Amino acid sequence: MKTTPEHDAKIANMTFASVYPHYITKVERKGRTKEELHQVITWLTGFDDKKLQELIDEKATFEAFFSQATLNPNAHLVTGVICGYRVEEIENPLTKQVRYLDKLVDELAKGRKMEKILRQA
């Protein structure tokens, strides 16, 4: 699925710190915890809580955030529609990675079991 260059640039320049509070609100409103959110983020990126806080404090863009991440080898198993885009069809690698994260947060908020969210091959 094609995204526009403007859309990709907007996502790349958005800061993780600006979106993170929304992730917390979304999962907590549905009865999940910040710890579970961190577990999902850690699974996708390899970041521990300390590194995550550093990236928030420095207001890292999603481009900087994912350039420092070690993407989970099973991240490609994250599929489905998020924000009107089918994740597996997104061509821009950074946009795809951000949408992986959005999809995982969405699944957490919808009450999906953690073992299903943290995909195993």
Automatic annotation (TrEMBL):
Q: Name one Pfam family in it.
A: DUF2200
Q: Which domain of life is it from?
A: Bacteria
Q: Which InterPro entries does this entry report, sorted A to Z? A: SP1917_dom_sf, UCP033199
Name of the protein: DUF2200 domain-containing protein
